[in-house]
Design a protein that fits this description.
- This protein has 187 residues and is of the alpha+beta class.
- The protein contains six helices and four strands.
- Strands 2-1-4-3 form a four-stranded antiparallel β-sheet.
- It is globular.
- The N terminus is likely disordered.
Length: 187
């Protein structure tokens, strides 16, 4: 899904249009590689020393508050392993957002990387996640909005997700919330 398309509340069976390898221009690949480096840096920087139930609650509330401040209709979801620790659907969201979150969360769990980074890596190769991952697109979505909860000396222990905005905006909201949360010495 590109930044110029509607939000990710569309039906789960819809797939974004991605340029074919022959359609990618050298500057397109360069832009995607720059984005990949930026997304990778975020994942290296936004890591936790611990992540408990109270941390999930505080982070989830922070993300929901940021969305409310912006008038954004999103659903926020946080899992640690198989346990859902936080879920809030703001007005204007629908069950479709829950389905998007589940599909994006599965990508993070499988690749131990943000859903936006995974999708961007496929696009940089001139293909799509849907075409090349060999995973069921009804169960996996490599669209921005799900981020790994990485604990130092442990690894990925969970996923924090946002659904309701275009994928780059979902991802940016997550990054802003994680930066604030960690900057304040939490987690």
């Amino acid at each position: 899904m590109s930044d110029h398309k509607p939000t990710d509340t569309k039906p789960a069976t819809a797939t974004p249009t991605t340029p074919k390898p022959a359609d990618l221009k050298p500057h397109d690949v360069s832009d995607l590689n720059t984005l990949i480096a930026e997304l990778w840096e975020q994942e290296q920087r936004l890591r936790f020393t611990r992540f408990g139930n109270d941390d999930a609650w505080e982070l989830g509330c922070l993300l929901a508050d940021l969305a409310v401040e912006r008038g954004a209709s999103v659903t926020v979801d946080i899992h640690r392993g198989a346990q859902q620790l936080f879920h809030r659907a703001l007005p204007g969201t629908s069950p479709d957002n829950d389905q998007w979150l589940a599909r994006k969360r599965r990508v993070v769990e499988r690749y131990a990387a943000s859903s936006y980074l995974v999708g961007t890596r496929f696009r940089a190769k001139g293909t799509t996640f849907e075409e090349s991952s060999r995973l069921d697109p009804d169960r996996y979505a490599a669209h921005g909005g799900a981020f790994p909860v990485y604990v130092h000396d442990v690894g990925v222990v969970g996923v924090v997700g946002v659904s309701g905005l275009p994928q780059a905006e979902d991802h940016a909201l997550l990054v802003e919330g994680l930066e604030r949360f960690l900057r304040d010495g939490r987690g």
